[in-house]
UniProtKB/TrEMBL annotation:
<keyword id="KW-0677">Repeat</keyword>
<dbReference type="InterPro" id="IPR011990">
    <property type="entry name" value="TPR-like_helical_dom_sf"/>
</dbReference>
<feature type="repeat" description="TPR">
    <location>
        <begin position="120"/>
        <end position="153"/>
    </location>
</feature>
<protein>
    <submittedName>
        <fullName>Uncharacterized protein</fullName>
    </submittedName>
</protein>
<keyword id="KW-0802">TPR repeat</keyword>
<dbReference type="InterPro" id="IPR019734">
    <property type="entry name" value="TPR_rpt"/>
</dbReference>
<dbReference type="InterPro" id="IPR039663">
    <property type="entry name" value="AIP/AIPL1/TTC9"/>
</dbReference>
Length: 183
């Protein structure tokens, strides 16, 4: 079973990626990565042992297995990175559309933020989406977090001001305090 899993094609890895993300949520992706690295180290050590025992054919197999463990992790990282970049670029394009689908912008920004909590553009664009969807408290939360990352960004400052004006106009209480500990 373990041996067969090393020979996934890239398309199989990509197609199973959403399932992996679902399984790996909550920090277990990091544990999975550590486990793969540990397996690679174990295979490498077995390869060294085989080499010393002059079992070169076995050593070659162990070294290849170690490399495959690391390669699978590289592919997963490449898929995740590409996915984040695509969602980020999609939100930029959607915001330039004649009729902006703010629900979709929000959805894509939240996907980016689920992978990279400190992604400035996703925070800013999520704030814009929530603003236009009328959820001013969420908008303010994301915009203030974006401001913490880029304190002088004039677009962020302008949307914070617009959001605060909407909140005061509609009498919404401001439960989100300007506090870095409360993003």
């Amino acid at each position: 079973f373990i041996f067969a899993s090393y020979f996934w094609t890239f398309s199989e890895a990509v197609s199973s990626y959403p399932l992996c993300i679902a399984r790996c949520s909550g920090g277990s992706a990091e544990m999975d990565m550590e486990a793969k690295i540990q397996k690679a180290i174990d295979f490498k050590l077995e390869g060294h042992r085989c080499y010393k025992e002059k079992k070169f054919r076995e050593a070659i197999g162990k070294y290849h297995r170690a490399l495959l463990q690391l390669k699978a992790e590289e592919q997963r990282n490449a898929v995740e990175s590409t996915e984040i970049e695509c969602y980020d670029s999609l939100t930029a394009c959607l915001l330039q559309s004649e009729l902006v689908n703010y629900e979709r912008v929000k959805e894509y920004c939240l996907k980016v933020l689920s992978h990279q909590r400190d992604h400035f553009k996703a925070m800013y664009r999520a704030g814009i989406a929530f603003y236009h969807l009328g959820d001013y408290e969420c908008a303010l939360r994301y915009l203030r977090e974006a401001k913490n990352r880029e304190p002088t960004d004039t677009n962020v400052l302008r949307y914070i001001q617009l959001t605060e004006m909407k909140m005061s106009k509609y009498g919404q209480r401001e439960s989100v305090k300007e506090n870095p500990a409360n993003p």
